[in-house]
Amino acid sequence: MDIVATLVTGFGFWNPIIWLAVLAVALVIAYLIWLTGESSYKPGTEQTKPYLSGNPEPAKQDVHVGGGHLYWGFTEAMRGYYDRIVPLHTGVLTDYLLWFFGIAAILILIVGLI
Amino acid sequence: MTLIETILAAVGGTVAMAVFGIVAGLFFLGVDRKFAALMQARIGPPLRQPFIDAAKLMRKENIVPENAIPWIFNGAPILALASAITILLYLPVGSIMPVLGGAGDLILVMYLLTIPALAMVVGGFASGSPYATVGAQREMVILIAYELPLAIAIIAIAWRLSMAGIADPFSLTTIAANPVWGVVGPVGAVGLLILLGILAWVTPAELSRIPFDAQEAETELAGGLLVEYSGKNFALFYLAQAVKTIVMAALAVALFLPWNLSSFVAMAPAVAVAADFVFFLAKVLLVVFFSISLIRVSMARFRINQIVSIYWVWLGLAGFVGLALVMIDAILAGV
C-alpha cells in the first residue's frame, strides 16, 4: 500500500502525510513568531504563584479535576438521560449480555422489516 | 500533480495563508470591537488595536507559573496557532480554490477545528491553576457540545449535493463551485436557513466568544484556561483566535455564501481574482457581524450546563428539523 496516497472512502478523502508536512511548516512559522517575543520573567517571585484572586492556594488534591469530573457540564445538562442510564450499568455480566442480545434482536427485526 | 509538487505548493501555501490568516484575522477582530462599540454607543478602539495589542504582548514578560509543566505550557500556544493556520489551506478564499482541496475534505476540516481548542485545553491543564483547570474542563465540554449541530449542518449540505448527482460532495472545491441554494427547492431552502442559523450559533463557541465563553468567563474564572498566560504565549493564543475567526467565517462562506462576483460580471482573470477576494472579505465581514459581534453584544454568558442543553437539545433538534426539510426537499424533487 502506498503510504503517501490519499485515503479515499467513497465520499470523503484525506491525505495525512500532506497535513503533517503542512503542520510542520506551520509549527516552524508559529515557533519563529514565538521566538521574537520577550522570554524573561522573574522565577521564584510572587508573579509565578497561581492567580487565585488573592486567596491562598488550596492543596493540589482539593482542586484536581479527575476523569469522573471532566465532563461535569455535560452530565449535569443531560442529567435526565444519565439518571436513567447509569442505574442500568449494574456491573453484572449477565445483565449486559441480556441487553446485548435484546438490542441485537431488535436490530435484526428492524433490518429484516426494511 | 506529483507528491513533491503538492508538498511545495503546501509549503508556499502555508506561508501565504499564515500571513493572510493573521493579518486579516487581527483586522476583523478590530472590526468586531468597532461594531460592538458602535452598538453600545461608544467610539471604540481604532481598527488597528488588535495589532497594537499583539505587538505589546510580545514585549511583555512571558511568565511560566511555578505549578506549570513548562514545555507543555509553552508548546500549547504554538500548536494552537499552527493548527489553526493549517485549516485555512483546506478552505476556498474567494475564487482561489483551496491549496489542499484535493488532500482533505469537509469532514477533515470539522476535526481539524478541534485541534486549536484541544491545544488550549492542554495549555490550561498544564498551567497548574485551579481556574485554568476548571476552564479547560469547560472547554472540553463545549467542544463536545457544538460537534453535533455542526456535524448535522455539514452532512445535510453534502448529502443534498450528493443526491443532486454531484460527485465528491464533501470536497470544499465541489461545495464552493456548486452553491447548495441552487440545488434545493423552497422546502430545502427553509431547511438550509435553519442550518445557516445553527452555524452562526456554533461560531461563537468555536471562537470562545460571549455567550459561549464559559471556559474563560472573566467575571467568575478570571480568564479561565488563559488565566496564567501572559506575554508571547498569550499573544500566540490571541493570533490563533484571529486565524480561527477567518477559518470559521471562510467555512460559513464556503458552505452557505459561495458565490463570486466573477460569476455574475464578466471581467479579466486577474481582476476577477482581486474582485472575488474583496467580495470574500465583504462576506467575512457579514459573518463576523451577525455571528460574533451582534450575538456577543446582545447576550449574556450562558452557564456551562445551559451551553450543553442549547447545543445538544435545542440546536440539535433544530438541526434535525433542517436536515428533515432538506431530505423532504430531495424527495419532492424526485431524487
Helix content of chain B: over 70%
Q: Percent of residues of chain B in beta strands?
A: under 5%
What's the helix-strand series of chain A?
Answer: EEHHHH
**From N to C, what is the helix and strand string of chain B?**
HHHHHHHHHHHH
Coarse morphology of chain B: globular
Span between termini of chain B: 35 Å
Topology, element by element:
The complex is a heterodimer of chains A (114) and B (335).
Chain A: E1 7-8, E2 13-14, H1 16-35, H2 72-77, H3 79-88, H4 93-113
Antiparallel strand pairs in A: 1-2
Chain B: H1 3-39, H2 49-59, H3 70-88, H4 106-112, H5 114-126, H6 130-163, H7 172-177, H8 186-206, H9 218-221, H10 231-256, H11 269-298, H12 304-332
Helix pairs in contact in B: 1-3, 1-10, 1-11, 2-10, 3-5, 3-10, 5-6, 6-8, 6-12, 8-10, 8-11, 8-12, 10-11
Features:
heterodimer; A: 114 residues; mainly alpha; two-stranded antiparallel ribbon; 4 helices; 50% helix; B: mainly alpha; transmembrane helix (chain B); membrane (chain B)
Please give a structural write-up.
The complex is a heterodimer of chains A (114) and B (335). Chain A has 114 residues and is mainly alpha-helical. Chain A folds into two domains: 38 residues; 56 residues, no CATH class. Chain A contains four helices and two strands, in the order E-E-H-H-H-H. In chain A, strands 1-2 form a two-stranded antiparallel sheet. In chain A, a hairpin with a 4-residue loop joins strand 1 and strand 2. The longest helix of chain A is centred in the C-terminal third of the chain and has 21 residues. The two termini of chain A are 37 Å apart. By secondary structure, chain B is an all-alpha fold. The longest helix of chain B has 37 residues. The chains are: A mainly alpha (114), B mainly alpha (335). Chains A and B meet through strand 2, helix 1 and helix 2 of A and helix 1, helix 2, helix 3, helix 4 and helix 6 of B.
